[in-house]
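pipeline/complex-builder :: batch 7 item 3
reading input block
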Amino acid sequence: MSNKWVIALYVLPALILILFLIYIPIVLTGYYGLMDWDGIGKKTFIGLENYIELMKDKMFWSSTYHSILLAVFSAFSLLIYLIISLILASKIKGAGLLRKIYLIPMLLSSVAIAQLWLKIFDPTNGMLNKLLEMFGVENTPIWLADPNLVLYSIFIPIVWQYAGFYIIIYYAALKGVSDEIMEAAKIDGASPFQIAYKIKLPLILPVIKVTIVLAIVGSLKYFDLIYVMTGGGPNGASEVIASYMYKEAFKTYDFGYGSAIGFALLVLCLVMTWIIQKLTASKENVQY
Amino acid sequence: MTEIGLQENKKSNLVISPKRKGGISGKLGYTLLYFVLGVIAIFQIYPLVWLFFFSLKTNQEVFGLSPFALPKDPQWINYVKVWTQGNISLYFFNSVWITIVAVILTVILASFVTFAITRMYWKLSKLVLGLFMVGIMIPLHSTLIPLFSFFNELKLIDNPISIILSYTAFNLPLTIMILLGFYQALPREMEEAAVMDGCSIHRIFFQITLPMTTPVMATVVIINMIYNWNEFVFVNTFISSDKWKTLTVGVNNFVGQYLTDWGAIGATLMISIIPILIAFIILSNRIVEGLAAGSVKG
């Protein structure tokens, strides 16, 4: 057997899978967006009609706005996770156990998390409102049923789910910073804040960049939790791009329009990744 | 003697230095830090404790008493009820075997690719690796409609093959990324010696390389297990009959039917997360390492 065949044997099965199930579909999504198609019948080519309609669609823009809002929240919450990790990594006893406890929600399915938080947010019998009543709050909020509150309410379980994930990433990166540098800084009389700000953060900057991309792109394609908790409601107040796409395709059976939304989501994710990388690109990598 | 004494002196100075500054305010600061960290830990864990409690309560207890009350008379019957009535046990076994098949397929295919990329020299290896790495950034929702019509044409809708293949394809990029770091750091002497001895490439892979990668394989197996066990969108889209549904979708439908029976809902949710919690207790170090490695290397 020649070398070429061996390589093909090792690489092709996986390569064919990702080509057929990831790369060809993303191209097809853009193409199906040019069709009038109910998913079962014949496709009719209608040019850019779906995309033009999409640009005029208020629902699409409000779901995009919600997705971007979630992305911005997520990006800012990274700062809190970073501070917690800095504390954990600074010789706190029990840091190993604590970060494992923080991680537990991340391991649960979004469906289980959504169902659990549906119960926590339950206006009459949920844990949250009962807790508020114990503190004497009257007129407790109705959380998920309140259009003004629903998106913020959903963000709580999102933080609950992902906090541990980002904390272990930052923690691992901070532990990778060599002790010698920090000892040297301490001898030179640097305060813990100076050490954190001037030494640790620049050294883990590449990791911070990765987490910004993960948090923003991850939020843009957020779906499971919202689909289960609110289905985009009440009245579209928590609709995001992915849930809107799903509704158009698999509830309304407008596969053409759904594909156009899916393609918009793809473009948005790729553009955001590119922008973040441009914005955070440093001229030189910090090395010690 | 004096030299050693001096060195020791220096060391102890270093250890003392943070305390010297601290004093009472330092102690207070530390207490405050631990308090904050503890509150976060409670925020992360208490919802699950609450879930466990209400899975063992009657509706009267849930509605009437404080959310911190222990179940008076634990209703284990809730668990028996949801396991025997309805399809939860069926969904559970579907989740188990579909997860196992997809994990094995993913880890073997990913090991093949990583081996070919790190141990063989060929022109397109950079391009192929790039394709796998970019795959991580692709939102799976953008592929959903074409995948649905693709599987529909192959008559694979409502067939577990469609979800197993999708799980495998979408987990390959991350799995390869984690394996890659390990393979690159792995010393090649054993493999080189085997080549000298005229060993075939397949024997090298299966008998030398693969056994050496067991630690990282354990990591990717557990990470893949968690992702597959929790997956929702593919099953929800591709599977319509109860026969093939997995726990996530099954639980979601089931809970919808039991709107008012909190005990049954709690028990169902507990059943769906217990395997993950057990895996976590046994393998938490691997999980932490895998999740951290997966993103840090990127």
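note: Chain B touches chain A through 88 residues (CB under 8 Å).
queue -> next item
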